[in-house]
Amino acid sequence: MTTNYAVPVPHSALSVQAVQRRRRQALLSALRYAAIAVVLFIFLAPFLWMLLSSFKTQVDITNTRNILNFTPTLENYENVFQQYEFLRYLLNSFAVAALSTLFSLILGLPAAYAIARFRLQWLGVILLTARIVPGITFLIPWFIIFSRLGLIGTLVPLILSHMLVGLPFIAWIMISFYEELPIELEEAAKIDGATPIGAFLRVALPLSMPGVITSGIVAFIFSWNNFMFSLVLADDRTRTLPIAIFNFLTYASVDWGGLMAAAVVITLPVLIITLFVQRYIIRGLTAGATKG
């Protein structure tokens, strides 16, 4: 009878293996952080350049040899709000974005719930078609309609035109949320006396709030940045921020300092809103990932 004995590994060999393992882990960590730094630089560099340029004079901006050595000035922001009346454009953009998003949520959430619960595929196809068709296709017909109604130059055409994209987007995002909600919860609410509308408002809607916030924020950002509809359907009183950028572009020159300050004004509100609701956006984007 033969007996097998395990060959002991020298302590020095174990130490060498442990050192090599730690070196590999350190190398992988270094590569991971380097990749993160490269990605952050790619995404943040344009914003940082824009932010620094907004505090520079025209001479400092064009001096590419000395990027960081300059005397900060608030003259660009003073011109933006005093000379170009950017506060009015800011209020117009906020009103259009907020109202179009609100109305899109009011109409889109029940539509998404009905499609998900009652299998209304035809309604989903209509919404999808409205989302796929380029917005410029509706521009001329809407201009003719709103012109005859005397609404050109008001906020109404802008709100309705922005809903043309926001409403289908919200509906299609929320369909998947309502399909993943257990229908037993709503049936239990109906047994307790809730109507179908009550089950939607008291059960389905609160449970889908991460998706509501996610889709609402994306629709708000689209409306905030939209250029085409405001260019045609607005006038001097109702122009939004993207159109106001044209004030800094002339045939002979470009006011780079004012342009950068205006870009910061446009970007900052959306950035602040996104930072405050980022946890809801993450929950909304990952909802359902662990179900199945």
Can you describe this structure?
This protein has 292 residues and is mostly helical. The chain folds into two domains: 11-45; 80-286, MetI-like fold (Orthogonal Bundle), CATH 1.10.3720.10. It contains 14 helices and no strands. It is flat. Mean pLDDT is 83; it is low at 288-292.
Overall body shape: flat
Largest sheet: none
Stated plainly, the CATH topology of the largest domain is called: MetI-like fold
Give the CATH level 1 class of the largest domain.
Mainly Alpha
Q: What is the percentage of strand-forming residues?
A: under 5%
Count of the domains: 2
Uncertain segments are 288-292
Mean pLDDT, all residues = 83
CATH architectural grouping of the largest domain: Orthogonal Bundle
Q: Quick one: how many beta strands?
A: 0
CATH superfamily of the largest domain: MetI-like
Summing up helix and strand content along with how strands pair, one would put the structural category as mainly alpha
Q: State the helicity in percent bands.
A: over 70%
Order of helices and strands: HHHHHHHHHHHHHH
Question: So how many helices?
Answer: 14
N-to-C terminal Cα separation, in Å?
55 Å
Rounded radius of gyration (Å): 27 Å
Notable characteristics:
flat, MetI-like fold, 0% strand, single chain, disordered C terminus, 292 residues, mainly alpha
